[in-house]
Amino acid sequence: AEYENILVEQRDAVTLITLNRPQALNALNSDVLADLTAAFGAFDADPSQRCAVLTGSGEKAFAAGADIKQMADKPAADFFLEDFFSGWQTGVFGTRKPWIAAVNGFALGGGCELAMMADFIIASDSAKFGQPEIKLGVAPGMGGSQRLTRAVGKAKAMEMCLTGRMMGAEEAERAGLVARVVPAADLLEDALKTAAAIAAMPMMAAMVNKEMVNLAFETTLSQGIVSERRLFQILTATEDKAEGMAAFIEKRAGVWKGK
Ligand code: HXC
Predict the structure, then answer these.
(1) Which of 68, 73, 88, 160 most suits a substitution to test ligand 1, by most atoms within 8 Å of the C-beta?
(2) Which residues does UniProt assign to the signal peptide (predicted)?
(3) pTM for the complete prediction?
(4) pLDDT in tens, 200-258
(5) Which atom of ligand 1 is nearest to the CA of 142?
(6) What ipTM, to 2 d.p.?
(7) Fewer CB atoms inside 10 A, N or C side of the chain?
(8) Which residue lies with its CA nearest to atom 16 of ligand 1?
(9) For residues 43 and 15, what is the distance between their CA atoms, to the nearest angstrom?
């Protein structure tokens, strides 16, 4: 498919999606959301694709937020009626296969929120994260107040939301917001390599592992542990479980069916 606001490439089993409005620092408008929803939907539906990487074009930004120019004159009722922000939860966060955000520069406001929808973030050493919405008279609207708080704890989340200050990559790694920091020049290669490693795993197991970790944010500990056990038990019925355990015992690499 052809998109206006993003680039999509398939590299073997890895889909690379690049936000491509560098002139607006990849600001997120409703057309970007429509493109991303279509691209993530196609990725989920394509059995040849097993992991995705989302990054931003240009060196400066992953995404500098929701598009302020699109929001500036929008009446309040339209924010409610269009419900733009909810589309990210279903159309992007709802992706069932694993995907990584490769954050290459500013990830601010909705850009930080989008990165936090990924299964994990790999950041370049020049990445900067922030929720500066307060300076515009608003607040995070795509999950930032909830996901940032769960990622870095109340103290840093509250400070960032109330002051709008940005957090650099090193601090973000220390605080648990990002999985790893790599030199800017290596970011994309590293993220694609990591994605290829995930894509080489038995796919249904990857999807279930993702679902399990995400459950930790939604349930009590005892309910989460019960759900984990049930999901584990479902995986024991897969062909890849039989293959994986046989391959271990026979000291050879597994050959996966993805089911
Ligand atoms: C629309 C944006 C934009 C945005 C940057 N641009 N961010 N356009 N929406 N969020 C545009 C600029 O207007 C400018 O276009 C071009 O991108 C380059 O940006 P500059 O500001 O000239 O670059 P620089 O001086 O280097 O500053 C970089 C920056 C700054 C610090 C990242 O752009 C900035 O503060 N951006 C806004 C960050 C922000 O507040 N994000 C949160 C948005 S609210 P022109 O045409 O002038 O060259 C949000 C809400 C979420 O995300 C949901 C709840 C409402």
Answers:
(1) 68
(2) none
(3) 0.97
(4) 999 999 999 999 999 999 999 999 999 999 999 999 999 999 999 999 999 999 999 99
(5) 53
(6) 0.97
(7) N
(8) 24
(9) 7
